[in-house]
Amino acid sequence: MQWLFDVFGWSFRNFSPAVFYQQTTLVLPTNDFFPGKVDSVQGMAELVFERVAEYAGMAHWPWQVVEQSHCYLENNLLPPVGAGQAFTGGRRLALANGQVLPIIYDMRHVNNPETLIAGFAHRLGQYLGHTAKEPPPGGVENWPQATEVLAVYLGFGLMFANSAFVFPPGGCGGCGAAVSRDNALSQWDYTYALALFTVLKGISPRQVRPHLKKSLRGYFQRCVTDVASREQLLSCLQAMVDTGEPQVSTNSIRA
Q1: What CA–CA distance (Å, rounded) separates 117 from 51?
Q2: Residue 5 region, left (φ>0) first, then alpha (ψ -120 to 50), else beta?
Q3: How many structural domains is the chain composed of?
């Protein structure tokens, strides 16, 4: 789990720890966090995304929510980073007047809010990750994994852990196809990252467990205990906060 600590350290170095401690909240999959209801699929997706962007501190970025069948609207401002590609972090987003950043979603996910939220949060993590001044731990080969952990860092760990699709013993066939999403990490990784978030923020596990799927609650508690026992790693993260080293805030877009 050392790598998860490293990604949180990367997040602290490249994004403001003050925002993390003073503004970032643990987002819960409840009506209080995601109020409202609309009749259309597109309207519901936009409603949910507005909340996700608000909790991520990125609501003022110029977004457009687009169903994936219309993904020709992708403007390729931020192409995915993959193995063998040079990292181009710290880049400016050169947006013309009226130009927007596309957020692509699968309409089938609208009936599974946690899957939809996790997908939106990961997309925001990808955009935000491109403003970092250094590659993520392990290099660009770990881009999908690192940006998912970055989304947990932004407060969406519960949705990632709860929506991680697990194939039942003996295979799956077509089950879950309508609501599954691509996972770069396992439910166990998300749960440990959630525990790290919880310990760093001083959140009681009692506030988290009721919102976590039952199969992960015991493991989450063990993760919290393990994170708390890693005093040296936690001290290294705390030192970054104390020195005020990181400078980039999620509350600003460089355009």
Answers
A1: 9
A2: alpha
A3: 1
In a domain, 169, yes or no: no
pLDDT, tens digit, 9 for 90 and up, residues 196-255: 999 999 999 999 999 999 999 999 999 999 999 999 999 999 888 765 444 434 444 443
pTM given for the model? 0.86
Distances (CA, A) of 57 to 60, 82, 93, 101, 251: 8, 26, 17, 15, 5
- What is the token pair recorded at 247? 């400078």
136 vs 139: CA distance, rounded Å = 5
Q: Looking at the DSSP assignment, which residues form a beta bridge with residue 104?
A: 66
Does 35 reside within a domain?
A: yes
User: For residue range 81-111, what is the model confidence (pLDDT) as tens digits?
Assistant: 554 555 666 655 556 667 789 999 999 999 9
Report the distance separating Cα 93 and Cα 255, nearest Å.
5
Burial class (CB in 10 A: 0-12, 13-18, 19+), 253: middle
Beta strands in the chain (DSSP E): 63-67, 101-105
Query: For the CA atoms of the chain, what is the radius of gyration?
Result: 18
Strand partners of residue 63 = 101
Phi, psi of 247 (to 5 degrees): -125, -15
Strands 101-105 and 63-67, bridge-based pairing: parallel
Q: Is residue 249 part of a domain?
A: no
- 252 within some domain: no
Question: For residue 16, what are the domain limits?
Answer: 2-164+174-243
